[in-house]
Amino acid sequence: MKVRRNKKQVPSFRKLLKTSKVKLENKLKNKQFKQQSTLKKYRKEQRKLRQAVKDAVSKKPIPLEDPKEKRPGKRIEREEEDEEEALPLDMMDEDDLQLMKDLGQRASFLTRDLSSSEPVHARKRKHEHVIDKYEKIPRTLQTAPEKELIHLLPIKDKSGIIPQTREKPVIDSNQDEEDQEEMEPEEEIIEEPIEELTLEEHLIERKKKLQEKKMRIAALASAILSDPESNIKKLKELRSMLMEQDPDVAVTVRKLVIVSLMELFKDITPSYKIRPLTEAEKSTKIRKETQKLREFEEGLVSQYKFYLENLEQVVKDWKQRKLKKSNVVSLKAYKGLAEVAVKSLCELLVALPHFNFHNNIIVLVVPLMNDMSKLISEMCCEAVKKLFKQDKLGQASLGVIKVISGFVKGRNYEVRPEMLRTFLCLRIKEVEVKKDTEDINKQKKFMTFKEKRRTLSRMQRKWKKAEEKLERELREAEASESSEKKLKLHTETLNIVFVTYFRILKKAQRSPLLPAVLEGLAKFAHLINVEFFDDLLVVLHSLIESGDLSYQESLHCVQTAFHVLSGQGDVLNIDPMKFYTHLYKTLFKLHAGATNEGVEIVLQCLDVMLTKRRKQVSQQRALAFIKRLCTLALHVLPNSSIGILATNRILMHTFPKTDLLLDNESQGSGVFLPELDEPEYCNAQNTALWELHVLRRHYHPIVQRFAAHLIAGAPSEGSEALKPELSRRSAAELFEAYSMAAMTFNPPVESSNSKRKDKVLQGDSFLSEELSQLIKRHCSEVATQLPLDFTKYLETSLR
């Protein structure tokens, strides 16, 4: 007999284990779902039952005649009417009264007896048993509710996997409600009136709270600084203190947190920009150290972003004068908070130009440069100047210049001049001029192989090859990417600056920005393209002739024109005589009082016009300017006189023949005409510098020294020569060094060391001997009564 073999393949142990796991999981899920559904159903029934019991207890039975009445007010009125119309109870039998009560209770679902679950008009059934009725009555809460199961990790033994669970008792919601109801009146009873603190106690309490907050901030900050990568999550905890709600210390704590976070970010921020990871980078497996670094960078960037958003919100709240719902910070305190926030933004702008969100900080800070608050405006302008001075590459400067240019244009050139004066701090000394550099620096040609073989030996060829290789490498290093990028950025920055300047010259000639524009053009004039020189000079001269400019603005025009001509403008055939005439004519308009703002510009103009263009200046023009400058030195402040006399000394060295002004004899024909406005035709050679003798008796010792030096012919050696600290400084430097803006005399006046007299003169000691004798003689004479006869003296006087 053949035994039928079971063709079904026996499953492996791994497969059995896998299927058993799936079955166990499904079984657990089904069990959990079933428990949850039964528990929900049970809770729902209990909730309904409790609500119905409460309603039945609180409501009174309603008569059968008006089962639809639901409004309590109408129901009470109806009950009163029924009581009036109804028969008295003593006229009814007890059975009838009981029947009426039962019918009233069973009148409707809302008022029926809930102790029985049968319908209102239920008829008696034939096969109805007492136990069935009993089962229909809802049970009271005597049975314990089913408890929730908490599934734990399973245990595996020889028999298989044993699931582990733990019971979680169900908290009775009804009991909780009762407990809460019981607790509420207790809480009301426990509440005691808050003790009012005195002012001194309140201050002590505030100081205590503030000290605790300071210690908390210090602890978090020191933990972050000690190990930034491990404690980066504490930045969030520290940043959460920006939302301090205690009104006693809210403002101070927020300020401290803002400053602390700013210093922390300056210290722990890396020296590179953190970019977001790509999907491929996220999916690749990395080492633990790399993963830790990535988490640190992500946390740092996110917290830095939230911090900047908080600072922006503080500034916005102050600008909009908005009060928060919490009303923790008053409107007056918002200004102080905003100032701290702006200070932090400025610090981050300067300290972290390479890090993320730097452009966002620029967009926040630039509009604040034009703020109505002078403190905030100056703070932002100083930060931008500092950034320009320390930015070597030019990337951050370009970003700021773009935003400022757009802001000035958007405001229709109605901004503070300080915004444009920040351009003067740009570190731009060269721009891309490719053609000129290629013509000047021609590439060096290396020897060909044939030339080497013909002229050099084998060893020399070997050395030559190594030398050429090294030279090529050095050339590549010089023309590196950074220098090329720097030139490109500087060129783009300067283009935006000149576009802004030319727009203002064209569209807003009467704007208060004009002096700043002219000052900027004077600084960067050597970098302007030669094609614009002729048009620019025409515009500057028309501005001067229009008469709409102030004296200082016209000086800026002159300065700009000569800066343009001193650089690439040398190749142009342009005669700037009209600018010489204008400066010569307006020298006496300089303010002689405490301002003296224009003197420094005049000194710079004279340096560019006469000293640097010595070959284009005639002797007559130089003599006229020296004479007028000496006259001007008589009526200005000491520091201005020193600067002017220093300029005259340089001019006398530059034009040696001008020493004829130190002689009394006239040279040539004609008479000096000091009132003439043309320096070429005023006959300055026929006058002398008599002003120097007046200045020699000046009250300022340095002015006296310079006057004596010039009278002697400005010698470089000898007794009349100047000391090195005076001779080596320029006129502008001397003007600044001896400034009296701080209301101090430079050099300081020596204090008198006169000895104090022991005896103080009193009475007669102040009188001379003759006067004291005359007084004594008159006092010793005996007074005689004589008649007063004035006619006698009158007759003698008439004779």
TrEMBL record:
Keywords: Coiled coil, Nucleus. Residues 554-707 form the CCAAT-binding factor domain. Residues 27-92 are annotated as: Disordered. Residues 213-307 form the Nucleolar complex-associated protein 3 N-terminal domain. The keyword Transferase does not apply. Residues 79-92 have a biased composition (Acidic residues). The keyword Coiled coil applies. It is found in: Nucleus, Nucleolus. Residues 52-78 have a biased composition (Basic and acidic residues). Residues 40-51 have a biased composition (Basic residues). It holds the Pfam family CBF. It comes from the Eukaryota. GO terms for biological process: DNA replication initiation; fat cell differentiation. Residues 449-487 form a coiled coil. GO terms for cellular component: mitochondrion; nuclear speck; nucleolus. One of its GO terms (molecular function) is chromatin binding. Belongs to the CBF/MAK21 family. PANTHER family: NUCLEOLAR COMPLEX PROTEIN 3 (PTHR14428), NUCLEOLAR COMPLEX PROTEIN 3 HOMOLOG (PTHR14428:SF5). This is Nucleolar complex protein 3 homolog. It comes from Balaenoptera musculus. The lineage of its organism: Eukaryota, Metazoa, Chordata, Craniata, Vertebrata. The gene is NOC3L.
